Hints:
Radius of gyration: 41 Å
Helix content: 10-25%
Structural class: alpha/beta
Order of helices and strands: HHHHEEHEEEEHEEEEE
Low-confidence stretches: 1-31, 103-113
Number of strands: 11
Amino acid sequence: MLSHILISSLLSSLVISSPLSGDASSLEARNKPKPDPGCRGEVDAIVSTLSSAYASPFCSSLLHIPTATATTTSTTKATATVTTGSASTLYTFLPGNPPSKAKARRDLEARNDPADPPIPTYLGKTPLPLISKACSCLNLPTRTTTATATVTATTTTTVAASPVYITKYPCADPFPTRIPTLPFGDATSPTDLGLQNGRFFTDTPQGQSGQACCNACFFELENCINAYYYSYQGCVYSQATNLTNASGQGVDATCPAGYFKGLTYVPDTKYDFRSQGTLAGPCGQTYNNL
């Protein structure tokens, strides 16, 4: 009977003193940063606090422990487009002034973040040198990060150059005078456009100013090639009547057949001194330096 009692007591003692392998507290203990046994004195309590708080990331950042990089390789597929030929430029002319630009939002003032990480609240007002010393007492693991090196398998596709579209407001305020840029430009053409001249007198809306003459040529008269404003004559204009070399591109209300192939505008340097300058028209293929 006595031996039976001794055996039962021994078994109970073994059960109580042997922790289960899945015990949560045992797992937490293994994940804590372990302090260096040689660290004692004024930092001992701080070391214990850091260890209990699982402060490895904070201490690693504070001590600038380098990060080891593990590299993996990833292969992606891509398509490269190769453009052949020169891109043509197509202009869109609009009346009035361009829309006003919205004021850019002022960026927030740049913040100079400190190099050191924020001090955790559980450390209270502990001086940074003591915290740093306590962190150095922990056996901190090497930080690791993973970088992916991407290898790209490229398939090449060849396409023709797409046109470049540019929007201009040639008759906008303030209206310039005799400046060799849009809306002023002298027309040259390799073919006979069958130019026909006309005039808006000074008592008409189109003949009252250079800006009104500009609007008439760019947005009112069909196939207007050039126009000239004279304060004493009004608005004199030239229209194309030979449409055989019209492109069919850039069609709009004032260029119903599109721009004229080879019709080029160059800076206006030979204008009639009695005029405000030679106004360009909307149906040109090229506007050189305007």
